[in-house]
Amino acid sequence: MAMRVAVSTDGSEVSGHFGRCPSFTIAEIEEGKVLRSEVIENPGHHPGFLPKFLSERGVRCIIAGGMGARAQGLFDECGIRTVLGVQGSVQEALAAFAGGRLTAGPSLCKPGAGKGYGVEKSVCDHGDGHDHEEAR
What we know:
By secondary structure, the protein is α/β, with parallel strands linked by helices. About 20% of the residues lie in helices and about 25% in strands. The chain has a single domain, classed as Dinitrogenase iron-molybdenum cofactor biosynthesis domain (Nucleotidyltransferase, domain 5, 2-Layer Sandwich), CATH 3.30.420.
């Protein structure tokens, strides 16, 4: 049975922050292989919206560079596993995930004031000090 996986996407790379990534790559994975993938535009970052949006599309796992603890909890409530701390190309991340070789790490965005970075910002407010690409 195929599993649907979403990757926070910025160009061809895994985005450092899931909520304000420009797009998501949604892939179907079965028997260790990526069967197909599509890129969809991020419909917007509103508290609680993206976990529901992705769940309605059959996503059971999200791969991202980082996300706050509140978002992780919301994904968990929707039955979506989060794999964080991932960097590099989306295609390499999907291939590694499909093959059971994807190495996760700590979220690249650390919890802070509970705010993600907005459209007008280029730095995440989670207090990690990392510069993130401007999302829009």
